[in-house]
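[Primary structure, fold]
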Amino acid sequence: MGVQMQAILFMAVFAAAWWVAGMVGGHQFIGLAAIGPLVSAVMILAARARLKGEAPADPADRKRRGRVVGWASALEGVAIFMAINLLKQNGLDAYIFPAVAIIVGLHFLPLAKLLAVKVYYLSAGLLVAVGAASLAVGAADRPFMVGVCSAIILWITCLTRLAKAPAPSAA
């Protein structure tokens, strides 16, 4: 699997997760929860068709990218775990979705720099902004707002990566 396809696959899966979490966590429009996974599946299939024949990454580059993503994701996971536990222990459950969105956004910064993917700077800023802006809405509406907006941001990031991906050479 090529670099572009792998990135789109991961982001589309997490976009679907954000969508479902927003629908279910917000106790709104639960019947529409399936739309997120459907959009992500269509996006993955479209990317697969568009990137068919994408050359796999050079083994050394693949290893470097794996380390960068691994470290950024590990730190993100630890930060999310700690934030959720601290917020729950202090009765601040209403701030979990915003905190997670901000942490996910910040996780895009080292990826943008170390993987040289400029659109990740925009994704980072938008995710942090969504997390912060959600504090202006009622606690009951935060999961819905954060989940749906985060999913849309990740889908747009996928589409941007796909649009900027060089067309694979026909073999």
Notes: Residues 3-164 form one domain. The chain is about 75% helix and 0% strand. The chain has a mean pLDDT of 92.
